[in-house]
TrEMBL record:
Catalytic reaction equation(s): tRNA(Gly) + glycine + ATP = glycyl-tRNA(Gly) + AMP + diphosphate
Record protein name field: Glycine--tRNA ligase beta subunit
Assembly, per entry: Tetramer of two alpha and two beta subunits.
HAMAP family in UniProt: Gly_tRNA_synth_beta
Keywords from the named record: Aminoacyl-tRNA synthetase, ATP-binding, Cytoplasm, Ligase, Nucleotide-binding, Protein biosynthesis
Subcellular localization(s) per the UniProt record: Cytoplasm
Molecular function via GO: ligase activity
Domain named DALR anticodon binding: residues: 603-706
Main location: cytoplasm
The enzyme's E.C. designation: 6.1.1.14
Amino acid sequence: MAEHKPLLIELGTEELPPKALDELSSAFLRGICDGLAKRGIDAALDQAKAYCSPRRLAAHIPGVAQAQPEQAIERRGPAMNAALDADGQPSKALHGFAQSCGVGVEQLEKLETDKGAWFVFRAVKPGQPVAALLPEIIEEALKGLPIPRPMRWADHDYSFVRPVHWLVILHGAEIVDGGVLGLKSGRKSRGHRFMHSQPVHVADADSWLDAMRASNVLADPQERRQRIRAQVEQAAKQTGGVPRLDDALLDEIANLTEWPVAIACTFEREFLAVPPEALVTTMETNQKFVPVFDAAGKLTEHFIGIANIDSNDPAEIRKGYERVIRPRFADAKFFWDEDLKTPLASYQEQLKSVTYQQALGSLWDKSVRVAELARVIANRVGVDAAAATRAASLSKCDLLTRMVGEFPELQGVMGRYYASHHGESAEVAEALDSYYQPRYGGDAIAAGKLGQVLAVAERLDTLAGIFAVGMKPGGSKDPFALRRAALGLARTLIEAGMELDLRGSLVEALEQLPDSALAAGLKPGKDGKSGALNAGQRRAILLDELYDFVLDRLRGYYAEQGFDNAQFEAVLAVQPSSLADFDRRLRAVAEFGRRPEAVSLAAANKRVANILRKQAEEVGAPVIGRVVDPAHFEADAERELADALASARLETAEALGAGDYTAVLARLSQLQAPVDTFFDSVLVNADNPAVRANRLALLGQLKAQFSAIADIALL
């Protein structure tokens, strides 16, 4: 067995983009491992580890063989009938094949299979040294990195995410000769840009991590994260507060620093008069600082900055951080004070001059449409319609405030503050913020009923409008975030238990759109005209597209919860009017699927569906709904099934009306025995037409009972 040695690959660069660094690092390691595996090189790939810092990508594999194993080569040549002429002598084709393999015809072998016989060339090729293959492997890994816009530098003809400066490739203690991106491999790395300016000698692959640490670089991103958390906690103790360091901010700070050092800082208490969300956004998003709260969860005047250096004078760094944040907080306070002078409702008129989308009009036009939808929805779900209309009319006003102009991520949040300040009800003010929920994956829906109504109305109008003008998502492009809007709509309807007819609501949203918007989405025909579709026909087409688009978002939503696609399709087949009802049916079907009778009943339903479909095709009319006449029963199994169906129908009527589908399916599962007996002892296609029609009608009743909930046959 070939000797195994640890492998270290380090590529040194200019500062890499922090938000992409983790993905670049994992992709680099994956590319190296894939390259080794593809070439059959034995390596401890399950123990491979990615390292990275702002100025380097690295991969370490604890054991990699010195060379490939011997490579067995087999090339199939011409078939026997083409390889030999009529006299049994080698043809030109066979000579050509042998020559291409570098051997004589006599060195070829014959391969016989049940599909024919061929000449083949077999050989064993010595494995190449890993050192000879690594440069190629590294180049492949670098080409496979997710770099949307690679850059060029100097006068080179190659490109990368950032300019590169050094390359270390060590197999054990040996340097692997070779190069990539114009760099020649060596054992000289680089430490911290300011704290360790001398080159770093790396003795071997296993000592690299310690060598980095000794040169003030924590190359292990997890080690940096742990250090940042510990130091932030320690710095927060000095302030007596509680830091808020979420994973996203931690990741970004870790990818901006090689030797993180936390420093407790303070700003003027007068800035606390500004809504805390604005201050926190400035600290986290713009400056990558960690805000500090008191025990009650209220923002304090303290924050924590993370330096990328262990300074001899941390007080100067503290002053710098405080000096940087002061003007941004001063701007936020100015925006806040100025915005408070103008009632939120006064911005409504200005919305008329702000275009939402050319064919869909202004933000004012959108607000009017959303207000009407909100009024209708509110009346249906028992929410104050006047409050819903008021909230909808104010929902876009904060977009014109100074604060949101500077901090767009605060839309909704500032609407809530300004509405409260100017006397709007607490319910309306809260809805102006919560209707944006869910803002991202994993976010909760709006908590209040008014916010839920506004959230649904807003998303219905957005989906209908953008689809109508022909800008629905395609591929990875979704500039209006319609996929997120559709999932937010579906989640709100389901998780809030809102009994709304989805198709009917989409119809209402489409009916509010101007005909000009519907015409804007039509593609010109060959004659250059828009086609013959009128507005009603266009809405009908859009309705089906929108309904399918929303339902498609639910596939992933339910898959994440453990529901399988067959269960989803079984419910989708009966087209429930509301998504809340869809959810109840799906959960009932999943519960039914766990019952021992489910497999047999699903198979029976599938058999029934096939029989009824074939019969409908033959006679040109559906069977379901026909009356069963007991006078035509010839077998006890028919009577028993008819009685069982009648009993089940009677006993489940109340539960079915109440939407308790779990109870209905639990009762219907008791039909297994009479159904199995029926199929075991009754011939459906009896010779007597009346008997046959009666038996088909009985099966139609069976299918109808299950189809009242879902198409069980699809399970």
